[in-house]
Write a structure and sequence with these properties.
- It is a single chain.
- The chain is mostly helical.
- It is 51% helix and 0% strand.
- It has four helices and no strands.
- Helix 3 runs antiparallel to helix 4.
- The two termini are 21 Å apart.
- The model has no long low-confidence stretch (mean pLDDT 86).
């Protein structure tokens, strides 16, 4: 999940425990589990995430990629809560 996050999302989003998002409006992945029920992101990732701004490309992930990415997002959120 971490590798996928870095490759697909890291050009805008912070994908680690302490990094800053390169795009100020892109939320860090470590905050996603506190902002959204992570399981709700699965459908959006399967169908292709589309947002209301031009900076985020549309992409579709396969079921294994979705599971890995969501597990990583959950893990990041848990690490952040422990601090």
């Amino acid at each position: 999940g971490q590798d996928l996050a870095e490759k697909k999302c890291g050009r805008c989003h912070a994908t680690g425990l302490n990094d800053k998002s390169k795009l100020a409006t892109a939320p860090p992945f470590r905050t996603l589990s506190s902002r959204y029920p992570v399981e709700n992101l699965a459908e959006a990732l399967a169908e292709g995430i589309v947002v209301g701004h031009h900076a985020m490309p549309e992409f579709v992930l396969d079921p294994d990629q979705i599971g890995n990415l969501l597990s990583y997002i959950d893990w990041l959120g848990a690490q952040t809560k422990e601090k």
